[in-house]
Specification:
Layout: H1 5-12, H2 14-17, H3 23-80, H4 84-94, H5 99-123, H6 136-139, H7 144-160, H8 165-186, H9 195-219, H10 229-238, H11 240-252, H12 255-263, H13 266-287, H14 290-302, H15 306-333, H16 335-340, H17 350-376, H18 378-403, H19 405-431, H20 440-456, H21 461-483, H22 497-500
Helix pairs in contact: 3-5, 3-7, 3-8, 3-13, 3-14, 4-5, 4-7, 4-14, 5-7, 5-10, 7-9, 7-14, 8-9, 11-18, 12-18, 12-19, 13-15, 13-17, 14-15, 14-17, 15-17, 15-20, 15-21, 17-18, 17-19, 18-19, 20-21
Amino acid sequence: MAGTDASMSAAESPAASGHAPSAQETAELARGGRTSFLGYVLRLAARFPFLFIAGRLYGAESLGRFAYATMVVELVAMLATLGLKRGLAEAMAARQQDQTHALYDALLVSLIAALLGAALLIAVPQIVFPTTEYAALERWFPLIIVAIVASDVSLAGLAFRFDIGATVRARSLVEPWVLSAAALALAFTALKPDGLIIAYLASMVAAAAASLWPAFRRFGAPSGWHPRPGVLWLLARRNVALAGADIAEWGAHRLDVFILGRFAPPEIVGIYYIAQQIASLPQRLKSSFDPILAPVLATNIAEGRTTKAALHIRQIGFWVGAAQLGVVLALGITGQASMGLFGPVFASGALILALLLLAELFAAQAAVAEAALVYVARGRNLMWSAAGILIQAGLSVLLVPRYGGEGAAAALAAAALILSVGKSRLLARLLAHPVAGWRWSLLLAGAPAFAIGLLFLQTPEWVQLGFGQWLVLAVFCAIIWRFGFKGADRLLFARSLRKEFPEA
């Protein structure tokens, strides 16, 4: 997977490829990534207060119960979306003169699927709450799937029009801050036993409203549109493989919680959930590029420009790898101090956090490669994803009963590494160009940052959190900027295209 910086530079040069992507196109990816990254930072600022509130005021057991219930409804919501979070870009690209109708077709077919999924969970509430009793309100909890699906599809349609700001507002401002505020307020009321669930309901409804309204404003009312069963069926059938890939990718990050919930008490699940939420922060760096990467890749691949697609994959892969590695080092080395922030009982999850961070690092390249595979080899991509799920499930069943949360995290890391290698090689073969975004400069920057982090482990936890994490990140960023970011790499931080490329 790794390649030298020199070979990467040669591969990315216009002379070498003969079909280099335009500077404007690369800048569009960078601009969309910057906008989404701002949303990531804002979401991070709200996510940590929620985890702190949940850990300190509700406890590990309540948090574990919440984690399992939301995992189930989000799984069904992902299935009900029918792959349209990414597949809608392809549908709109094929219906350039009919994009509004394409959006409403997607909304209708996904909402039908959402209602069917919610009905199943309402009929069998033990799927959502397997080890604990459930109240009357909680039985109807799965209806939130409708709001989740409506939000996801609306934001996918807006992303095709390069409106990433709507995603930032809905997912990084409205949803997490409503969740944190509601959880804090309910913790001091008689509703505290169901406080986390109610807070989640409020946040998802608010996010749906913040998604649907800008979509309606941009696309307008469905003038002349009416449901056509044949079109809806074709849309759903065409996205079956993509939906399967979405489920497999999402499931790879939730299967561990599902299996752990079957073998361990809610308290262990709660500790694992906190570690998972911290570890998922680097993963969200990759997802920052998803809204803008999908339409760019869909357009290039539809027009046969596979060389451009490969170059974009490599560029995004390096950006994501550089951002993730710095965060992984900063959070992983001081894992015990980071986990202890949410309560003394959570500090025991330091090893779980380290393994989950390693899994996210392995999974980054597979996730970036899949962004193109869903357009050029949906079936084979789904097969690889299914294989990864089976590997993870087998290892989890073997390791979790003996090692608990550490076993679940180790199984996830192993499966992520296998998928990363397999999907990257498959995409490179299909596009006939290298796609790996890893470079030796990542190791050059990571080694001294790791060494500094080890030194800070000898200091009190408040020093590790207040100074150690930031120094590790600063050293990594300084070295990777000086020796790793060259030419188009720096577009990610350029305020304008002409600032870095005056000739563009």
